[in-house]
UniProtKB/TrEMBL annotation:
This is Anion transporter. PANTHER family: TRANSPORTER ARSB-RELATED. Its main location: membrane. It is a multi-pass membrane protein. One of its GO terms (biological process) is response to arsenic-containing substance. Belongs to the CitM (TC 2.A.11) transporter family. Belongs to the ArsB family. It is found in: Cell membrane. The keyword Cell membrane applies. Keywords: Arsenical resistance, Cell membrane, Membrane, Transmembrane, Transmembrane helix, Transport. The chain crosses the membrane at residues 6-27, 34-51, 63-86, 98-127, 177-200, 227-257, 269-288, 308-333, 345-371, 383-404.
Length: 405
């Protein structure tokens, strides 16, 4: 009976990870969140783990940090912060190349400070608005936005979901993490800018921008000032060693404590499905451990620890593109104790798993968000168009990370 449960568990986990990788299950109308929840439910149903083990599998620090960053991003959105960014981009852009630099810079920096998926969610309409106002082809700027968000998010623990998981598991201080990976992110943003210009030469031959149409945005200044103060204090808390989930949650609570803005408006901006996705994924991957499959996987991959960081990083890149970066991190994190320099191994995993997301349009949630929102505006971002930028950027940035980390 135990053998049957073990084999069924492996099949369910494999089917779940396959569904997460391709974004759906054949014959079913199920997205990634639904797939992980169904997978977790099936594993509980066949007795692969107890309910208590399922609770223990969920990394509530990660869930709390994700929730807190979504509240912060939602508050910034309602305050009109992203509209202000739009106006500044239009104001300072002197030509298409400087416009691209501003889009990439804003996306990269904001994604380092906050959560890259939500930054892309907020900024994609901005880029579409700006390019429409300036009468430019939106495609290279949209691709630059998504690629830069992935690259910029490499720099900090709060930049993306896989870094949040790694930060909580490794206990690397926020400042140490940022100091180690920020150089890779900065060089990566420059690489992104150069590659987009080379791939879309025609768009960037013109030296001038059309006179912009007027872009109006509503700014709620009391909330914007409050958010600026709260976020500054949160970043200071990160730097002085306050646990990242605690500092972010306190900041989120402070932003929700308002007399004028209804909290439900903030809650409507939260991606509750993403939180459920991670809870389900934690349970699904934990089933490999309860059924003994994780131990066998680590035995097979143990030579990686002796082979060094480069092979480990390359395996991370490949696995992140096969099964998505978050499941890859959850599987590979068990190998870290076998490395002599565990902190470097954690940082290598963070950099390569994140940068791997730029390889294809399907490589990261940020890419998919950008493509889906663009489609609603009538702009098609094809797999091939993205690959022209994503492939060289991924090769170069991963190489940089393996040298610098």
């Amino acid at each position: 009976m135990d053998t049957i449960i073990s084999v069924l568990s492996l099949l369910i986990v494999a089917a779940t990870i396959f569904g997460v990788a391709v974004g759906r299950w054949p014959l079913l109308r199920a997205d990634r969140t639904t797939i992980t929840v169904i997978g977790a439910a099936l594993l509980l149903g066949i007795g692969a783990m107890s309910l208590e083990q399922a609770y223990e599998a969920i990394d509530f620090d990660t869930i709390l940090l994700l929730f807190s960053m979504m509240v912060i991003n939602g508050s910034l959105f309602l305050a009109g912060f992203f509209g202000v960014v739009t106006q500044r981009v239009v104001q300072f852009a002197r030509g298409p190349r400087s416009l691209l630099a501003l889009v990439i810079g804003a996306s990269g920096v904001l994604s380092a400070l906050f959560l890259n998926d939500t930054i892309v969610l907020m900024m994609t309409p901005i880029v579409l608005d700006v390019t429409r106002a300036l009468r430019r082809d939106p495609l290279p700027y949209l691709i630059g936005l998504a690629v830069a968000a992935n690259i910029g998010s490499t720099a900090t623990i709060t930049g993306n979901p896989q870094n949040i998981i790694i930060g909580n598991a490794s206990n690397i201080p926020y400042l140490d993490f940022a100091a180690a990976l920020t150089p890779t992110a900065l060089i990566g943003l420059v690489i992104c800018w150069v590659i987009v210009i080379l791939v879309y030469r025609d768009e960037f031959r013109s030296g001038a921008l059309a006179a912009p149409n007027v872009l109006r945005t509503r700014v709620y200044r009391p909330l914007l000032r409050k958010a600026a103060l709260v976020i500054t204090l949160m970043l200071i808390a990160f730097l002085v060693g306050v646990p990242v989930p605690v500092a972010a949650f306190v900041a989120a609570g402070a932003l929700l404590a308002t007399r004028r803005l209804r909290p439900e408006r903030v809650f409507k901006t939260i991606d509750w499905g993403l939180l459920a996705f991670f809870a389900g994924l934690f349970v699904v991957t934990h089933a490999l451990e309860t059924q003994g499959w994780t131990e066998q996987l680590f035995t097979a991959l143990a030579p990686l620890a002796q082979a060094g960081m480069v092979p480990f990083g390359l395996v991370s890149v490949v696995l992140s593109n096969l099964i998505s970066n978050v499941p890859a991190v959850l599987l590979l994190q068990g190998l870290i104790p076998a490395f002599a320099d565990q902190q470097r191994a954690w940082l290598t995993l963070a950099a390569t798993a994140t940068l791997a997301g730029n390889l294809t349009l399907l490589g990261s949630v940020a890419n998919l968000i950008m493509a889906e929102l663009a489609a609603r505006w009538g702009v098609r971002v094809s797999f091939g168009a993205y690959l022209k930028v994503g492939l060289p950027v991924t090769i170069l940035t991963v190489a940089v990370s393996l040298v610098l980390v």
